[in-house]
């Protein structure tokens, strides 16, 4: 028997909203350690890894390891029936073919339950090796979301260049190009943005970084990689889960975009870098 109860149902709703557009069908692995998911998107360019530790739930019971195949769009539809302050309980029998979602709202004295059919999904579990990354950037989730959104209006890809003092995001398209540089900061430091278009030339904006918008960089050596913006924008749907996002980069490896989920666990997105056209031509 598997049973897990989370007091703040909005967390589970936000998690599903952040991954449902990338992954359609996926297996949730329920073990004594927690509730986990690992799945690739349909194009096999990005990977999602979710972990909600058992210790983060108000109640957690897993008598034996259970694999539950679910359609994430359908799961999201069911969770939308819960209010944000509802307590959500998930239940499934070891050999059952349904999962039950129970929503409890003590204030309204209301209990709702929904059953969803489970699926047999044949997927291969990919081992993600522990990696020492050359660059780790911690910055405001909202700021990272805004940068990805702004740059996607100009170009399709973004080049992320990390040095010991700053992280620079660059894109170009038919209308021009844009460069946004976030300096390594401390409280009260300044943040610099450069935006250049064909019409405006180059502009430099200096604004004081507010609390929670500081940039922290742990660097072994400088890294410059290019990624598809549409995937990064999709990852940013997890912005509401936490104040800061962590980016981990190494040459020729997928970037890791991690959002911590309070005291429960994390959502990690992995995205393969784009191969430069000149490199592709040589090969």
UniProtKB/TrEMBL annotation:
Q: Which UniProt keywords apply?
A: DNA replication, DNA-binding, Nucleus
All copies of the Proliferating cell nuclear antigen PCNA N-terminal domain together span 1-124
Q: Where is this region: Disordered?
A: 187-209
User: A Pfam family for this UniProt protein?
Assistant: PCNA_N
Show the CDD domains listed in the entry. Answer: PCNA
- What is the annotated localization of this protein? Nucleus
For this chain, the family text in UniProt reads: Belongs to the PCNA family.
The protein in question is named DNA sliding clamp PCNA
- Organism of origin: Bathycoccus prasinos
